[in-house]
Amino acid sequence: MTPTVLITDNDMGPADLERAALEPAGYRVVHAECRTEDDVLEALRSHRPVGLLVQYAPITERVLRAAADTDVKALFRYGIGMDNVDLAAARTLGIEARNVPDYGSAEVANHATTLLLSLLRGVPAWSAAAARGEWPVRGDLPDPLEVGVCTLGLLGFGAIAREVGVRARAFGMRVLAHDPFVADDDVRAAGAEPVAFEDLWRGSTAVSVHAPLTSATEGVVGADALSLMAPGSFLVNTARAGLVDRTALEAALAEGRLAGVGLDVWWQEPAAADDPLLRDPRVLVTPHVAWLSPGSVRRLRASAASRLLDVLTTGGSPS
């Protein structure tokens, strides 16, 4: 019987890249469109795969137990974040669960920097005024900031955050970073200043969020952190929405502590069309596309498939 790899879901187009990687090695590729836990369970029962490629589908403990019963050896997620996969259950059941960590770092860093610069320079408000047929004089809207005198704080200091830091320094910004898992000397070697969590918020004109979403980091950008920022500060999040406490964010906007927010992620995606936060002129929103480019899509899909193949054929760690 031909072993099967199940693509639980994939909104990036036909599975030609995955088939090109897997079918010559003797695997059948089935492309499903699972949205719910029950959808995934039904696909597992129907196709009995040995490997999974996953985008957004919920890979819960219940799903993983069913996957173990069909002899699934490994799964790879299309992306970096793994918050839709129960990693503890995967470890317990002996299923290799991995991400693709290096496919679009430059795109996300570019997007985060674009949001940051747009906020500091007041682009959303000035653009909206021009679209209304207005040509405001100084004083009608807040003056754009001088980027080179601003300080950027990076919450998390992985590959993407480091690239954002490089871009920010190119504009003359001072860069602070907080990451409890990165040594201070490594932060300094990468061109940023290591600081304590509280000092990151106190010392930054804007903070860009680049931490993973875990039980320990959920809501880490909350009222306590935001209260430390100077009035008129900015926040950018291209990581995971759950890192930010929405109630605290709205309160910080209401009191003027945050003058602008750039978000590429939302608490429930897709965002509801009538969500009032979408209509707040101080909130610059993009629909989870920071990672997106033609090249990054190809790299993501090909890498996920080839890494899964490595594990399935060798039983070892993915290359």
UniProtKB/TrEMBL annotation:
Keywords: NAD, Oxidoreductase. InterPro entries: CtBP, D-iso_2-hydroxyacid_DH_PdxB, D-isomer_2_OHA_DH_cat_dom, D-isomer_DH_NAD-bd, NAD(P)-bd_dom_sf. Gene3D superfamilies: NAD(P)-binding Rossmann-like Domain. This is D-isomer specific 2-hydroxyacid dehydrogenase family protein. Pfam families: 2-Hacid_dh, 2-Hacid_dh_C. Belongs to the D-isomer specific 2-hydroxyacid dehydrogenase family. Residues 19-315 form the D-isomer specific 2-hydroxyacid dehydrogenase catalytic domain. GO terms for molecular function: NAD binding; oxidoreductase activity, acting on the CH-OH group of donors, NAD or NADP as acceptor; transcription corepressor activity. The keyword Chaperone does not apply. Residues 114-290 form the D-isomer specific 2-hydroxyacid dehydrogenase NAD-binding domain. It comes from Cellulomonas aerilata. The keyword NAD applies.
